[in-house]
Amino acid sequence: MDLYVQPGGGDDVGAAAEALPPRIVGGLEQYVADGGRYLGLCMGAYLAGPVAFGLVETDLDGEVGRPGFAVTDSRETAVDVAWDGHHRQTFFQEGAVLPPPDDRADVFARYGNDDIAAARYDHGDGMAGLIGPHPEADQTWLDEAGITDPDGDDWKYAVPFVETLLD
Q1: Which of 2, 37, 57, 128 is in the most buried spot, having the most CB atoms within 10 Å?
Q2: What is the C-alpha to C-alpha distance for residues 131 and 116, in angstroms, rounded to an integer?
Q3: What span, in angstroms and rounded, lies between the C-alpha atoms of 70 and 77?
């Protein structure tokens, strides 16, 4: 396996963590520590913390209500995210703010308030790539949420980030 991807879903981090079989939790941490790659999107980013997989040392908080962030509730919306310097409107619902980088982390995207939206963290011999918003959201997501994304699909801006996990 080259990359384990943990998608988003739901809004109860504790319940999501409890629903994971213990052998999966321990096995995944060991897989990454032994050189594996993990990509966590939204809930998958939250689960990378100590609440589940322990791939980053800090519990992740939500971006909603943070200083300078325009979203104050759990509605689906598009928010400003700078993907490697390219400002884009990106689908967002209850996304995580990621831990500050250290010498073992690289920031790839920031929310409009400069909080970290996507970063890569070393874990043992492996890496965990975490993304708070949803660059994978396509037009069907926007249509279902009744929102407009004026600059369209963002996945191509996240692909270079994913490629760094596979290198």
Answers
A1: 128
A2: 9
A3: 10
Do residues 149 and 89 make contact, with C-beta atoms less than 8 angstroms apart? yes
What are the pLDDT tens digits along the chain (167 aa)?
689 999 887 778 888 888 888 888 889 999 999 999 999 999 999 999 999 999 999 889 999 999 999 999 989 999 999 998 899 999 999 999 998 877 767 999 999 999 999 999 999 999 999 999 999 999 999 999 999 888 888 888 889 999 989 98
State both tokens at 29: 């941490």
For the chain, what is the total number of helices (H) and then of strands (E)?
Answer: 5, 9
DSSP assigned state of 142 = H
Place of tokens 């994304």: 149
Inter-residue contact 158 to 135 (CB < 8 Å): yes
Residue 149, CB half-sphere, CA atoms under 13 Å: how many? Answer: 29
CA gap 46, 50 in Å, rounded: 9
Phi–psi pair at 116, nearest 5 degrees: -80, 125
DSSP state of 57: S
